[in-house]
Specification:
The protein is of the alpha/beta class. It has 6 helices and 6 strands; from the N terminus they run αβαβαβαβαβαβ. Helix 2 packs parallel to helix 3, helix 3 runs parallel beside helix 4 and helix 5 packs parallel to helix 6.
């Protein structure tokens, strides 16, 4: 029984998140789409309180940084579906996720302009179950990164590359 709670905006986002996620250790899917002011403290609460999380959608959460992804990866190792579209993720955050979340099957990095071949190499090494990868508008990705993913992710069936200007037909 989760009961009803009256949430007052002045309590703050962190307190509201703690209240909403209390006793929700069994939560498997969470969507925080276009939460533009998402503070790191909220993601720390998710990482600490949702160990069974398999799907996390943070599309448009521009405040999400590598340190947040490192926390989430450590706290949510069962992640299979991760949407980071338009987040400030770079290779470091992507590498942390790839190292701790080997079950990743679907990843969206649409518009994550800090992702390069280095991050893709980490995904290739750590995510053998990857079936779908969206790299749309990841303008620093080259043929080398695509080759690494192709070699390391045998289940890959969907690869979005629109706007990847450094990827050629050779990739």
């Amino acid at each position: 029984a989760y009961g009803t709670h009256n949430l007052v905006f002045s309590e703050g986002v962190l307190q509201c998140t703690q209240l909403l996620l209390r006793d929700r250790a069994g939560l498997t899917a969470l969507s925080m789409v276009q939460y533009k002011g998402l503070p790191s403290a909220v993601l720390a609460v998710v990482a600490a309180g949702c160990p069974l999380l398999t799907s996390l959608d943070m599309w448009g959460c521009r405040q999400v940084m590598d340190k947040d992804l490192t926390l989430l990866a450590a706290g949510c190792p069962l992640l299979a579906n991760l949407a980071l579209a338009f987040c400030w993720a770079t290779d470091a955050g992507l590498a942390a996720v790839a190292a701790k979340c080997p079950r990743l099957a679907v990843v969206s990095l649409l518009g994550c302009r800090g992702v390069t071949d280095i991050g893709l190499a980490a995904v290739a090494a750590g995510c053998p179950r990857l079936a779908s990868l969206d790299l749309t508008e990841c303008g620093l990705v080259t043929d080398a990164g695509i080759a690494a993913v192709a070699a390391g992710c045998p289940r890959l069936g969907v690869l979005e590359l629109r706007g990847c200007i450094l990827v050629t037909d050779a990739g």
